[in-house]
Write a structure and sequence with these properties.
Layout (H helix, E strand, L loop, with lengths): L1 H9 L5 H11 L4 H32 L4 H14 L1 H6 L1 H9 L7 H11 L3 H23 L9
């Protein structure tokens, strides 16, 4: 049952792998198990965000449902992910990989979806970025790497 908690935590915006990996290690999972379980949880939302967020936002605008929220979220995501807009896949990779607050799979996937990056190219990039993020979080959590923002 703990695996589902870890996956859910990793799939939660803001927390993602940055919080789920230390929790998995605390529960006694190995580094490899924590990495793989949280990677699955982290990238699951990306599929839906990349494929459906633009259509959901278009539907909400058409039906005049929470248009202010949609406009605010798009602006905020594009502001946060300006390097994704500028550098596309490389920007997406780095944005997802760097384990800082307000970066990661959710916002990176949202920006990629909003600017229309191709799913077949964006999704593997998100997986690669989340993998890098997971490795960095494991290195920091195990005391092997010290980063100024942790």
């Amino acid at each position: 049952m703990d695996i589902f908690k870890i996956i859910l935590m990793a799939a939660t915006p803001i927390i993602e792998q940055k919080g789920a990996i230390p929790y998995a290690l605390y529960l006694g999972y190995s580094n490899a198990e924590a990495f793989l379980i949280t990677l699955v949880g982290a990238v699951l939302p990306s599929v839906f965000i990349l494929l459906f967020l633009p259509q959901v936002f278009a539907f909400m605008r058409e039906k005049k449902i929470l248009v202010g929220f949609v406009d605010w979220y798009e602006k905020r995501a594009l502001d946060k992910g300006s390097n994704i807009v500028k550098y596309e896949l490389l920007g997406l990779l780095l944005f997802v990989a760097i384990p800082l607050p307000m970066t990661g799979v959710w916002t990176g996937s949202a920006v990629a979806g909003i600017i229309g990056l191709d799913f077949k190219r964006a999704f593997p990039t998100v997986i690669a970025g989340a993998s890098i993020c997971g490795i960095l979080v494991l290195l920091v959590t195990n005391g092997i790497l010290m980063l100024p923002f942790f």
